Amino acid sequence: MNADHKRFDYLEILRFILAFLTMTWHYYYFGPSVGTIHATPVHGFVIRFFSFSVEIFFIISGFIITASAVNRSPVNFLIGRVARLGPCLLVCATLSLVVGLLLGRWPTPLSYVASILIVPLAFTNGADWSYWSLRLEIIFYAVVFVTMCVANIRRSVLWIALLLTSCDVVSIASVKLFGSDVFGTAMSQYPVERYLSFFAIGMLLYQLMVAKKINVATVGTLLVSVCAGAFRCYEDANRIARLVGDTPVSAFTGGVILAVGIVAFIGFLRGTASPRAARIFAALGSTSYPLYLIHQNMGYLIVGFVDAKLGHGIDARPFVMIGMVVLAGAIALYLEPALARQYRRFLTYSAATASLAWARMPGSKRSYGDAD
Prior knowledge:
By secondary structure, this protein is mainly α. The protein has twelve helices and no strands.
């Protein structure tokens, strides 16, 4: 089988596990710690680090998006990304809006519109607190898309990873040397440069493990990316510790967090020979995206509503978690595919229309036969 067409079915299981761990972290650690859920937080050594599931998501994204890009034209890549993000965002943002209206805390009109239009999420907040990570995903997609438009993406993977890692390293160095981020975002909660190394790690693991481009430049860049990522894990763990009043961690702990994430990623980096298992894994992977989008604010509101109605004698969180998984599965298996087909049809038609209009422009070197 061609390396570019390998399937990594077990990564779908990992994506679901990561989304579930993120939900667990929000319901049992972060939410109770900041008062959005009225319960005692679980301060176990492990659960406080479940938040780093998102960083592993970024590594997976760097890997999968690279694999996707090398097999597609820029237009097909863009259509694929929009069709992947758009339908689920439309459904989940609308659910967040409706539940918020019913239970007393709804997204702002701007955040809702930004969510369903996708691109504005790169610049503003979405309908749920969990949408912050989509900002980084969208920016990463844009970098890959622009590269595809001007260069051969197969030959550019290392250069993109090097660029992402360099931005992160420059940011770290500028804060350490001068006390301020050269990008001017050191005081924001989720500055883009703080997470770039994780995407770079995913891209470089693709180069090493799939494309088999094993050389000094790739390995060296990966080592720098891992060091920067480990520092960011250490930094973020302490940021959260300060926020919720937990104990700080050492730099060694930051390295262990990232090492566990990379080992988990590599461990799940394989396919299955069973078509039935592959379908089940794909369903779990598809469920992870809506689960991530709906679980936080909606979950906080529903848990609070149930507590208010039934009192604090019953812990509603396990039932809400089960409900969130079932709802996310229904969105992923029934609503999203139907909407995705409509998105693809509209985007493909729009791209063909734009291509034909470009071909008809005076001075265009393209013929009508080229406008496909």
